[in-house]
Amino acid sequence: MFTINAIVRSGRVLFLLVAAMAAVSCEQCVVRGTVADVKGEALPGVSVSANNSEAQALTDALGEYKLSCKPGRVELSFMKTGYTSGLLEIEAAGSGGVKATGVTLWCLPQSAGVYLFEDFRYRKLVQIEPKPFIMEKGNAAADTLQTPAANAALSIMYGIARLPEMEEALARKPLLIAFKMPRYDIQLCRLHPVKAKPLEPNPAIQEAWGPEAPVPTGADPIDEPDRFLTEIQTFEALEPGVYAIHWGALEGATATDPRAFVFRIFDPEKPAEGGEPSAAPQESGENKAEKAKKGADSTPKKPDTKTDKPAASDAAQEGGW
Fold first, then answer.
1. C-alpha distances in Å from residue 83, one per residue of 34, 121, 226, 313
2. Model pLDDT for residues 242-279, shown as the tens digit of each residue
3. For 270-297, what is each residue's pLDDT tens digit?
4. Could you give the CA distance from residue 136 to residue 145 in angstroms, rounded to a whole number?
């Protein structure tokens, strides 16, 4: 039989056990960190939350935040209207404070497409739907063009009748970014002028721009987990000339996307090939030549957004931050 003293002692033990469990359950870890844009400037108004806590925080004018969460492995989420979301995994240990790795956010352009990113500005590449052309018989330039195997006997190529005004890159390895575009089957090729006839009744011979051999490229997602932004990587410096990014349109395959996105690599030694003068950047030929000379063999540095997990992104207007 239990005595009164035994019952009292049991009650004390139970009380202490419940109190200890409550203390453990209430233990919180404070996480502090900062959020900046790709220029390194503080980014206020970013919502920060933890997957193991209902608490939320907003970054202040200095881009700093403070958030309480349970100890252990924590996944922080970063969200802001007009910005892509981002994730950061940290180890929140005990009741002490934790300094999280800084997060860098990219801005987003206004609409889907391919962009040249220079001086922290998005410049949208003009888009064109290539058309079929019949190569002029005996045209030596036809041997340099890439035509679908099924069309080789007919000397049919897919190209552009007239080059439009287009963006001009000063760097030989430009930073090209696709926004909300397919991340597979990305192709980059240089365009070359040839004499050809449009595939239509009673065509006249005209100059058309067709694709040469493809340039080796890669695709690297910039933001996680959304993957809205993809860097189109060029593994070698591009020679001056006109280039197109496409998803098969210059081979007659339009299922993925029927468009080609064109741009020019600036050549300080000669005037532009085809099309109209570039609208941007608005600089004298002398200044552009000097910039091109400095950056001919360099690539614009892509801001490092990689932390424990690839970082988040930020939304801005096209053409500027």
1. 16, 16, 11, 5
2. 999 999 999 999 999 999 999 999 988 775 555 544 44
3. 755 555 444 444 455 555 555 555 444 4
4. 13
Contact present, 242 and 163 (Cβ < 8 Å): yes
Non-local CB neighbours of 32 within 8 Å, separated by 6+ positions: 64, 65, 66, 67, 97, 98, 99, 100
The full set of domains in the chain, from first to last, is 4-105 (2.60.40.10), 113-295 (no CATH)
pLDDT digits (tens, 9 = 90+) for 19-60: 334 334 457 889 999 999 988 899 999 999 998 788 899 999
Counted residue by residue, the chain has a size of 321
C-alpha–C-alpha distance, residues 89 and 100, integer Å: 9
Separation CA 237–CA 298 (nearest Å): 8
- Which residue shows structure tokens 């200095």? 62
- C-alpha span between 264 and 165 (Å, rounded): 10
Peptide bond into 193 cis (omega under 30): no
Sequential DSSP letters for 86-140: EEEEEEE-TTSEEEPPPEEEB---SSSEEEEEETTEEEEPEEE--EEEEEPTT-G
Residue with tokens 């209902």: 54
Q: How many CB atoms lie within 10 A of CB 255?
A: 9
Measured between alpha carbons, how far is 129 from 260 in angstroms, rounded to an integer? 6
Cα(first)–Cα(last) distance of the chain, in Å?
Answer: 79
